[in-house]
Each structure stands twice: as structure tokens, then as C-alpha cells.
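Check out one such.
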Amino acid sequence: TRHKGYALSQKHRKRIEEAFGWAKTVGGMSQTVYRGVERVRSRFILTLAAGNLARLPRLLAV
């Protein structure tokens, strides 16, 4: 972590990985129940929207 850019990318990476981790564990996206790209994409978007709604109270409290 000698470079500022690398430290910054690690900070952003953590935020992105948290969303995907939540989707896989809590949101049930570790294995999809649908077939087809469009259905899986729709489920993924819906899952991440639910994740954003779950985060909303913490974001508004700040």
C-alpha cells in the first residue's frame, strides 16, 4: 500500500465486495433458481435493490 491510488482502490473494493457478499449470503444469489440471462439479471437487480433498502436506515442516520 505504498501508493495512494492502491489504498483508495482497496477502500472502494471493500464497499463493492460487501454488496456482492450480502447478495450471496442474505439475498440468496449464491445459486440462482432461474434460468436465462434476463431472469437472473432481474433477480439480481431486485436483490441489490433490497440490499439498498436494508442499508437505507443506516445511511439516513449519518
